[in-house]
Write the structure tokens for this entry.
Amino acid sequence: MSLMLKLLAIIAVVSSFANANTINEKIETFIEGSFENNPNIKSINAKVLSKNEILEYKNWNAYMVELDAILKKDGRQIVQKMMWFSDGEVVTKELFALKEGKEMNEFVSIPFKDKYYNKANLIYGNENAKHKVVIFSDPLCPFCKTFVPEAIDYMKKEPNKYALYYYHFPLESIHPASVELAKAAITLELQGRKNVVLDLYKVKVDPNEKSNEKILLEFNKVMNSNIKPFELFSKEVIAHFKNDLEVASMLMVNGTPTIFFDGKLDKTKMKYKEAK
């Protein structure tokens, strides 16, 4: 459980709103007020980032909220995004659909907005192609190793049909080495190299490897390149890497591979094959 979730444990699961001008303000005011007596929190700011309809339950909406808290003990800042649910009268952190026996989170799909399509992330196809496909992936994710290269090979053959965007999303907690692999791939891409992402999945490295030198040794071997450790920390590489993670955060991506097809989350991961 994250620190923010632990701090949230004192909040009532379902509460009615105090008076406020808008539903967003009501949610923000309620959450901030819920922390007033928390001895661990010095200050907290709640901001509703987006409202997402739940098609199966039209009376309810999902609100992505960013909490920005300062801890009393050491002044540390904790920033976390989480989903809250409201029907306009009550707000709750957890909501379950009895009919399906699922958490309401499973019915929420945050759209991939136009502003998130970054030209630097377009790895194949024409940006004006009929369909836009987005892949968030970790090159050391076992499923990604088979799925992603196959999907790329399939779509790159039809550049006017698919605009394929790739966002690095290394799962650092379980594949530490994927962070440096992602940065190495970005470094080569910024140098103008093609097919970097596709070749990235051919690099064989221990997922728990933490030595940049060893990771780059295997990377350079596959790529026939000569990337140095210091290059992974250039401003351009870090900016690109952070942008990928920020986009993933805004969409609450938490696993790999995650696929968006024409702006919508594709839970089947196969809509690109069904496209006409």
About this structure: The chain has a mean pLDDT of 91. The chain has two domains: 3-107, 114-274. The first strand starts at residue 14 and ends at 16. The radius of gyration is 21 Å.
